[in-house]
Amino acid sequence: MSQRTIVITGASDGIGAAAARTLASRGEHVVLVGRSPEKTAALGAELGAPFHVADYADLAQVRRLARELTDAYPRIDVLANNAGGIMAGRTMTVDGFEKTFQVNHLAGFLLTHLLLPTLVESRATVVQTSSRAASAFSRFDIDDLQNSRSYSPQRAYGNGKLENVLFTRELHRRYAQHGLSTAAFHPGVVGTNFGSESTLLMRAVYHTPLVKRLFTRTPDQGAAPLLWLLDSTPGKDWQSGEYYERYAVARTAPAAYDDELARRLWDESERLVGAAV
Length: 277
Fold this sequence. Notes:
The protein is an alpha/beta fold. The chain has helices spanning 14-25, 37-47, 59-72, 99-122, 133-136, 153-175, 200-207, 209-215, 219-231, 259-273; strands spanning 5-8, 29-34, 51-53, 78-81, 125-129, 181-185, 242-245, 248-249.
């Protein structure tokens, strides 16, 4: 297999960094995208890999990132939309969107949308890091994407992870015929810096050493399903447009299979990001 250009967002820590290390060790051309300038630069130096910095809570930075990637990489074989997080209280970004919605869905949607000409030309694979939280916590309302009613960190996060699956399915519907392959997956409960901005319970699960050791997976374990999707062949080893757990198609929230809902989410996301698309 020839060297691929693989863009990984959320790559400065956790499963993104773990996947980047493995892929770089195999000789792949890994492109790192992270929020932290220090962490992202450090990993770039460690791997000898190019890196870009963007905070998904600011869509101007996502637009700049898309321009940088388009200019620097005429071919992108894989886009791993791995950036995301769970927040504490309901806060709004500089763009006027609820932060959980923007960081987990809208920013990744915008980046993918702006990269579509390159991705289609490359016949790329686009992978979304979703979560079982989509079925456990989501109470999705297409008319309340800003999570303004009955907000809780878990519900907002579950909605964001459901949006990842809806986006995956709609991306497949619109672009599979053009050679694009896409999937969403659950990495497991991974012991990373995830949850540090959220509730006391989430911080206890992810940052108490004993609890973390007993109930979470390592970043390498969490990265394994992502690597499987990237190393195997869509249409043969996995089916484009599906959601995966433990290397197999899995069921998630019923709303994920509503084709009209997926279309409406895409159209509304386009409207929200506006002329930037």
